[in-house]
Amino acid sequence: MEGGLGMGKHSDSQSNPGSLRLKLEGYLNDVDSRVAKYVNLTLVSLIIVSVICSMLITVKALPDEYRDAIKVAEYMFASIFLVEYLIRIFSAPNRLKYMFSFYGLIDLAAILPMFLFGSNETFALRLVRTISLFRMLKLIRYTRDVQVLLSSLSKSMMIIVMLISGIILLTLIGGNVIYLVEPENFDSAFDGVWWSLVTMSTVGYGDYVTHTLAGRMVAGAAMIVGIVLFAIVTGLISSRIFEATRIYERVHCRSCHASIERESNYCSFCGIEKPDESINQHKPSRAE
What range does the domain containing 208 cover? Predict the structure, then answer.
């Protein structure tokens, strides 16, 4: 009997290979799972430490023994990220879709140059160190606050795109105009475009300065236009952020007086429609 039970359990585990995949997928992606939070925080910590190590190795005064130790640590970090990448492929509901997705390509790009070129190829190593930072963007996908904010911004995405397109267009125009007015101060129109962007954003690096009256008039116009356009973009994004925060404001249901979110269309306790309306809104007056 015991042998039969043991064989039954073994056959059940073999007949359910997807259960392991579901568990691993939950450990990696389920934001409500405590294990997933610890796993993702651990991976992010490893990414930060690996990037700091890769930055330390660029210090020319670093002793050779420390440099060798950091190279070994980089291979260890790459091996850990390789295991994570293989687990994500194994646990993904659609493996090909994950492998060719944005985050799948980022995961692959974070480990492939290290194993292809080693720690001696400087450009590939600098590239992989930079790309590794983008892996932290995966946590944004599982953060409700960021999702709400992105959802609010998407409602005005067309307006934001139009404003940014206008800024780019005016930057190109301003760069060509300033090159036409003061060609002796700019090597090319591209330098003029750089000056126009710096001036419109009111950063003012000072690497290019206008000297003539006409050039200063162009600079003044670029400053005014830039302040107006950037203020519109900033105000639009700020209004969407305020709108996103309102979703967490709580009110009392007009029927059962339970505490609910302001944006709720139905009360989760009594089921009444539009529960955030005033309790006295539909009450007849005494005169009636």
Answer: 152-247
Classify the C-alpha dihedral 167-173-178-179 as positive or negative: positive
pLDDT, tens only, 71-86 = 888 888 888 888 988 9
Copy the structure tokens of residue 133. Answer: 């930072």
Question: Residue 258 CA to chain centroid, in angstroms?
Answer: 36
The answer to whether the CB of 89 falls within 8 A of the CB of 101 is no
Cα separations (Å) of 72 from 50, 63, 114, 122, 233? 11, 15, 11, 16, 46
What is the C-alpha separation between 20 and 15, in angstroms, rounded? Answer: 11
Share of the chain above pLDDT 70, in %: 65
How far, in Å, CA of 35 to CA of 39, rounded?
A: 6
SS3 261: strand
Q: Of 81, 110, 142, which residue constitutes the final position of a domain?
A: 142
Q: So what's the pLDDT on residue 283? A: 40
138 near 103, Cβ under 8 Å? yes
> DSSP readout, 209-242?
---SHHHHHHHHHHHHHHHHHHHHHHHHHHHHHH
Closest CA to 272 of 286, 253, 259, 287: 253
Question: CA dihedral defined by 45, 46, 51, 55, rounded to 10 degrees?
Answer: 100
Cβ burial of 100 (10 Å; 0-12, 13-18, 19+) is: exposed
Residue 159 placed within a domain: yes
With H, G, I as helix, E, B as strand and everything else as coil, classify residue 259: strand
With beta carbons less than 8 A apart as the criterion, state whether 132 and 50 touch: yes
**Residue 280 and residue 256 share a domain:** yes
> What's the pTM value of the predicted model, to 2 decimals?
0.52
Q: Which residues pair with 273 in a beta bridge?
A: 266
Query: Coil, strand, or helix at residue 90?
Result: helix
Same domain, 110 and 182: no
